[in-house]
Amino acid sequence: MMRKRLTGMGVALVTPFTENGDVDYIALDNLVQTQLDEGTDFLCVLGTTAETPTLNSSEKRNIRKRIIEKVNGRIPILLGMGGNCTAALVQEIKDEDLTGVDAILSVTPYYNKPSQQGLYGHYKAIAQATSLPIYLYNVPGRTGVNILPETVLRLAAECPNIVGIKEASGNLEQIKTIIDNAPQGFDVLSGDDGLICDIMKLGGVGAITVFGNAYPGAFTQMVHHAAEGRYDEAAVLNNAFANICSLLFADGNPAGVKSLLAHQNKMGNNLRLPLAPARKQVDDDMKQAMQTLDAFLASR
Known about the structure:
47% of the residues lie in helices and 12% in strands.
């Protein structure tokens, strides 16, 4: 099977919940349909933004199947599969029916803080467990461990199906080292909504975004401008998004984007503990920022 390269604007989908805490599959269907209608390039399913640690195995399976059926091959699906026990993760990858999944996004192990050699061994075992393309996911602010460029490049050189990385370290020097030294075909995606244009200027090929849940069309336009080297045009949109972008993470992710989506009447503002909705002040500021952005976009 030919690899579907993941470039452009990818969305890290949220998981809508009802007031009683159940997965809201109707809202999820509508969210996915909006992504398809507004030109999102690919979907990241069951990642951090989906509150995946709070979902049980049955819910994760149902969400995955529901989205795959809804997308029906129209855009690629990147599936989050990570863990801090290598053997358990390898077994999960082998056991699950991954039909319809185009690639796996696997976060660095969290809490137990492995060495670089441990990270190398972890990802090599994952690569050997599947023929699917694998994207590393580096987000040290959440996991407590940073996968260094030399480890990324070692894996890229030795494991043919490790084909890219979602980089959310915030360290542009580190990201540039990976981009400059990676083998041909190894892609770097921005994992930080506020650094997308900066990373794409360095040679990144796209982004996996939180913001795109709420404004997929406009955010896709910005990412495409950057991909085409039209950085001035991308900057205009990036500046317009900046206020909301900071609010998205003021009380953690996905509290901010769920506040925004609720103001857009796309789903209820419901999260599962230990996550909680954004504070009232952040929620009020989000509504005002949304109205300002809507007016700007309507005037273009």
